[in-house]
Amino acid sequence: MRIRCPFCGERGLEEFSPKGDAAPTRPALSNKDPEAWHSFVHLRENPKGQHREYFQHSGGCRAWLIVTRDTRTHNILDVTLARQEKR
Amino acid sequence: MQRYSAFQLFKQALTGNTGWQRAWRDPAPKPRYDAIIIGGGGHGLATAYYMAKNHGMANVAVLEKGWLGGGNTGRNTTLIRSNYITPGNTEFFDHSMTLWQGLSRDLNYNCMISHRGQFVLAHSPEQMDIYRHRANVMKGQGIDVELVGLADLSRRIPELDTSPSARFPVYGAIFQPLAGSVRHDAVAWGYARAADARGVDIIQQCEVTGITRAVDGRVTGVETTRGPIKSDRVGIAVAGNTSEVCRLAGLRLPLESHCLTAYVSEPLKPVLDHVVTFGAGLMYVSQSNKGGLVFGGAIEGYNSYAQRGNLPRVQNVVTDLLAMFPNLPRVKLLRSWGGIQDMTMDGSPLMGTTPIPGLFLNGGWCYQGFKATPAAGWCFAHTLATGTPHPLIECFGLNRFETGHILEEYPQGPEPMLH
Question: Which of B255, B304, B402 sits opposite A44 (nearest CB)?
Answer without folding.
Answer: B255
